[in-house]
Design goal:
The protein is built from 5 helices and 11 strands. The chain is of the alpha+beta class and about 250 residues long. It has 2 domains: about 210 residues, no CATH class; about 40 residues.
């Protein structure tokens, strides 16, 4: 059951990542981006899209920033590997603004333990019940803030945390105050502010049922109500017909 659940979540993440990557040129571009595809049981698929320079500066990754050097994807995967976090992909690098970027995808069994993975140790995570629904909180603290030299940053670079919520969002503190199509919430911060360790709090509350499950349940309930109504009408018609057909005393 767990394997099927993880496979379904991973396929959804792949599809959404492809859609996001297709749309990204027309929207924001981030130097460092964490995308969390949250499941209702507290597990998640986490996708990180980041420049090597940002990984070195924010997390202390020992990697050559020479554009001509070979990217050690195994070393990047090892950085993200820990108990409860299974790295499923480290992409080939691509270039933007003269810097190389990679994508790291991992499956996490329990979001609350994500800080045990080195690149996520800068944050505290909580996940659990809140009233009739669920609540997720991520509080980002200091980064490694390692010196990386001149990598072409001009001070306008952004980092982002994006949540993909599987159910109806009832509250969030995203600065945009908007829930994007696909139940996506986005928090942004200047890269320089993240390097300095300025705090960033990510908070969202949402329903305990998947949107699809809830929609199907409502549909079935409506169908059942309609069937009951039709049955009642038929019963009344048949009853009246019998009364009319009954002989007078």
């Amino acid at each position: 059951m767990w394997v099927l659940h993880r496979q379904g979540l991973a396929l959804m993440a792949v599809a959404l990542v492809l859609l996001t990557s297709c749309a990204r040129p027309f929207g924001r571009q981030y130097e460092y981006e964490e995308e969390l595809y949250i499941a209702l049981d507290g597990s998640a698929t986490v996708v990180v899209n980041a420049s090597l320079a940002s990984l070195a500066a924010l997390h202390g990754l020992k990697v050559s920033l020479d554009p001509a050097a070979t990217v050690d994807r195994a070393a990047i995967g090892a950085l993200y590997t820990s108990t409860g976090a299974d790295v499923t992909r480290v992409s080939r690098p691509w270039r933007r603004d003269g810097r190389r970027f990679v994508q790291v995808r991992l499956d996490v069994q329990d979001l609350r333990a994500l800080s045990a993975t080195r690149p996520f140790a800068w944050a505290r995570y909580s996940f659990g019940r809140s009233g009739q629904g669920l609540q997720f909180v991520q509080e980002l603290g200091p980064s490694v803030n390692a010196a990386v030299g001149d990598v072409g940053w001009d001070g306008n670079e952004l980092i982002a945390v994006r949540l993909h919520i599987p159910s109806r969002v009832t509250y969030h503190n995203a600065p945009s105050k908007a829930v994007e199509r696909g139940n996506i919430l986005t928090w942004e911060q200047p890269l320089q502010a993240r390097l300095k360790g300025e705090p960033l709090k990510v908070e969202a509350r949402f329903g305990a049922q998947r949107i699809l499950v809830l929609t199907v349940a409502l549909f079935l309930a409506a169908m059942a109500a309609a069937a009951a109504t039709v049955a009642a009408i038929i019963w009344l018609v048949v009853r009246k017909g019998r009364q009319r057909a009954a002989p007078s005393p």
